[in-house]
Amino acid sequence: MAATIDKNNIVHVSTEVLQKLSSIAEEHDYTTEAELYYENHTPVVAYLILEGKGKLFKKRRKDISLKAGDLIGLIELFNHTPSAYGAHVQSGTKVLFLDRSTINEIIEEDIDEDLKRIFQDLLVHA
Amino acid sequence: MLKKQDNSCSNCASLSKGVFCSLAKEELADISNHKVTNTYKKGQTLFVQGNHPFGLYCISSGNIKVTKVGADGKESIVRIATAGDVLGHRSLFTDQYYSATATALEDTKVCFLDKKFIMKVIQDKPSVSMNIIEKLSADMGAAESKLSSLHQKNVRERLAELLLLLKESHGEEMEDGRTKINLKLTREEMATMIGTANETLIRFISEFKEAGLLEQEGKTIYIKNEEDLMDWANLAY
To answer: pLDDT of B65-84, one tens digit each?
Structure first.
């Protein structure tokens, strides 16, 4: 399996999937630390960490570390549900943005068969 | 059990003022299915200057301040966006990073549409394109007026002009003839909007109060005499 999902809705993708996604979505280098989304908000896009570090955080809960290959916000975005955690990235982190339209294209069009199957499987949870 | 909020576009209180006002019910349903709706608390940011633009933000209720940080690190308010306004539309067409930061001034309900989706809507629905052009034109007009005010007017005139603008955008007529400004801005925020120091603004507010142009109840400003305020603003037309 090239992508697995854990109990915190973090999708862990393989290097191969990460490279494929890099070629079809836009990325951004965060030169300063930044909030990707707030606790109890629905993320506006899904975020894939390409390089660097981040965390999911929540009041009175232990932070959950994020590293390269972690995709966050996908399930909440497609479920229209708020995230139980806020997400934060450190300065120097490179992030790939996967918006709803891009993910719909992956699923509905013939961009890449592997990615199509992976996202179809992942969104069974949504 | 919490009742699920109705975030559909067709039931949005700001639909008539927004860019999707001319769309049919089924077209609005498409947008409702695609969009992401969040309520931002005071101080939470929708996007940050220098960051990558994702799409279009539509304000359903509340107020957002759009600020720019200069090379000296000082923040100035470029404009206040309110219900029915859109944000991020300029970056959609220029493909540039956000040139300003958008921060909620109070609990503000905002809907988001990603760039690919909104660009398709713009291509397919001329009414949406026209409404966005209208918003862009209004923004440009406001920016031109602000620029000329900063160059040609003194602080007293700029403050009078700001109060008239706030009356237009956030004013509520009261039974006693006054107009309540339904927007709580700090003195510092107001000062940055007219390009002056905090202390100078406070001095002029006192002068306006003494002249009977405005009143204050707590942090709320009431405009008492619009006619004199227009004279003080030295409006060109």
So the answer is: 999 998 888 889 999 999 99
Whether residue A52 is predicted with pLDDT greater than 50 in this model: the reply is: yes
| Contacting residues of A for B48, CB less than 8 Å apart | 34
* Residues of B at the A interface, defined by Cβ within 8 angstroms: 34, 36-38, 40, 44-45, 48, 50-52, 54-55, 112, 114-117, 120
> A-chain residues within 8 Å CB-CB of B54?
44-45, 97, 99
Min Cα–Cα distance to chain A from B114, Å:
6
What predicted TM-score, i.e. pTM, was given to this entire model?
0.89
CATH topology of domain B154-233: Arc Repressor Mutant, subunit A (1.10.10)
Q: Please say whether the beta carbons of A76 and A43 come within 8 A.
A: yes
What is the average pLDDT across B85-109? 91
> CB distance from A39 to chain B under 8 Å?
no
Whether the CB of A94 is below 8 Å from some CB of chain B: the reply is: no
Contact with chain B for residue A93, Cβ under 8 A: no
Return the exposure string of B172-199: e unless at least 16 CB atoms fall within 10 Å of the residue's CB, then b: eeeeeebbbbebebeeebbbbbbebeee
Query: How do the domains of chain A map onto residue ranges?
Result: 3-125
Pick the CATH number of B9-150 from 3.40.50.2000, 3.30.110.30, 2.60.120.10, 1.10.10.10: 2.60.120.10
- Look up residue A94 and give its amino acid: K
List where CATH 2.60.120.10 sits in chain B.
9-150
Q: How far is CA B170 from CA A101, B26, B46, B112, B182, in A?
A: 35, 32, 21, 23, 5
Complex ipTM, two decimals? 0.91
Separation CA B66–CA B81 (nearest Å): 7
A101·B54 Cβ contact <8 A? no
Per-residue model confidence (pLDDT) at position A125: 62
Q: Residue B106 has which token pair?
A: 């109070």
Whether residues B114 and A45 touch (CB distance < 8 A) is answered with yes
In the prediction, which pLDDT does B104 show? 97
A102/B116 Cβ within 8 A = yes
Domain A3-125: CATH architecture, name and number where available: Sandwich (2.60)
Q: What is the pLDDT of residues A29-46, one digit of tens each?
A: 999 999 999 999 999 999
User: What mean pLDDT comes out for the span B215-226?
Assistant: 92
- Residues of chain A numbered 62-81 and touching chain B (CB < 8 Å): 77, 80
